[in-house]
Specification:
homodimer; 12 helices; 291 residues; mainly alpha; 70% helix; two-stranded antiparallel ribbon
């Protein structure tokens, strides 16, 4: 029962990988669509979002195994967003996590369609989740739609790609929507799947938002630190033209403080529920990560 | 109560337009996203799909006004599919219904993202529909996901765009998935919103599939007839290279027969429920349409 942080994380991660690996396996006439979907779904990553769903489900008192389809549904939406973000008309990236991006392997047409299909399939997973009642399914699906839609993740993507945020306030809004909404959504999904009390909903949302913000600022910092270490470039010189980041606005020390502040706020939001300290350790591990 | 076909259709259509026009109206920081979504949602069309949802909801015994959000949700998904279909990496169309396509007005980046957001917002509409219980919301959302996802509309799009169907069987499968699944989904949504009996579900699905097939074959025919009338070209000469259509395979007379067969099958499937003959008239009007 009492697992150490790393053991529990690995337990969750393995269940998630196994479940994701069971999706889109059969071979219909449109096997290329399934292959393209699987390619990106199984491209690895830390699976932080679904891990959060499972831990919140457990803390909210349900058998976390029953929340696996819901957790993986949000991961499918996260995956579709990565596929579309990498498209030539978006960020135009050839590589993701060291592997060719979806459209580089399967072509743009299939990359667009694989992303579209993954979004629909995410709802299908939630709405057929065996361990959940109709009320929980409906609530989870609504949380996912809110986190990922026109006032959530997609809005953040629009601001980031097309509005060139310049102030700390604008940059915070981008990351609140683009990263925060989905990480908060992952936390809330676990609570909703377990049908827990409203107070825990709010704590889960706050933890997720703060964690998302810490994650994003740390990401920006690592970008700068990585560059400075590897190539000896002056800090900030490698920034994309016109794209302002937190280190540009706050400096590295200011970023360090901001990350610690967000992490503390995240931890204290869930302190009454975080029995084994898993959520606190997860927050700390993101704060201290070097890649 | 006893409205003529045209009056009832117009009544539904106006409610649908009014509801759609109320969406994405406020102006958040990402007003460009909302504008792009509204542009395509309000670009007109016959609104056949949501009209079907409302009529099936009425026939299944509910106040059809309560089904408007569900009906419009499917129309949002239909709209997102048109936006993405028109993209340069898909069909690369500059015009739709005589107006510039979404990416021609708003750019490709916003067109991809508006489509993505419309899909999420469709689920939000269903899952917050005021007149529905959680069970009905969950069932409707699942029907939408099944109709539009990796074994429905998107699969049809993949086959149509990337697999170049050549036989009647292959072409039938494309249209069953690409058009039939969504029209059948629209019919089933009305029945599910009203929580009606299983027998009516099956009849609604059959009506929708047959209607979708008739609609599509008629579309292919009009393409040929239109060309022959307007430009005096020999039939079939204007087909896109490598794209086989029903007139190529069956000839115009064979198509005529096939459309009538599908229409009859559609009408007889719902005959026990189609009290005022609205569904029969709708099927006939599609069969006989000249544009």
């Amino acid at each position: 029962m009492e697992l150490a942080f790393a053991e529990r994380y690995e337990l969750y991660r393995q269940e998630i990988e196994q479940y994701l690996n069971s999706l889109f396996e059969e071979e219909p006439h449109w096997a290329d669509l399934y292959a393209s979907m699987r390619y990106s779904v199984l491209a690895g990553g830390k699976r932080i979002r679904p891990v959060l769903t499972l831990e919140f489900a457990r803390l909210a008192g349900m058998d976390w195994h029953d929340a696996v389809p819901v957790a993986c549904a949000l991961e499918l939406v996260h995956t579709y967003s990565l596929i579309h973000d990498d498209l030539p008309c978006m960020d135009d990236d050839d590589l993701r996590r060291g592997k060719p991006t979806n459209h580089k392997v399967y072509g743009e047409t299939l990359a667009v369609l694989a992303g579209d299909a993954l979004q629909a399939e995410a709802y299908r997973l939630i709405l057929t989740a065996p361990g959940l009642k109709a009320e929980q399914r409906a609530e989870c699906a609504l949380i996912l739609a809110g986190a990922s839609g026109a006032d959530g993740m997609v809005a953040g993507q629009v601001l980031d790609t097309l509005h060139a945020p310049k102030t700390e306030q604008e940059l915070t809004e981008v990351h609140r929507l683009k990263t925060g909404a989905m990480i908060a959504g992952a936390c809330r999904l676990g609570v909703a799947a377990a049908d827990a009390k409203e107070a825990f909903h709010q704590a889960a949302a706050e933890y997720g938002y703060q964690l998302g913000m810490a994650f994003q600022i740390r990401d920006d910092m690592l970008d700068v630190i990585g560059n400075a270490d590897e190539f000896g470039k002056p800090i900030g010189s490698d920034r994309e033209e016109g794209k302002v980041t937190f280190p540009d606005l706050l400096g590295l020390e200011g970023c360090e403080r901001a990350v610690l502040d967000c992490t503390e706020r995240a931890k204290s939001a869930v302190a009454p529920w975080d029995e084994d300290g898993f959520l606190a350790e997860l927050a700390d591990s993101l704060t201290n990560r070097m890649k």
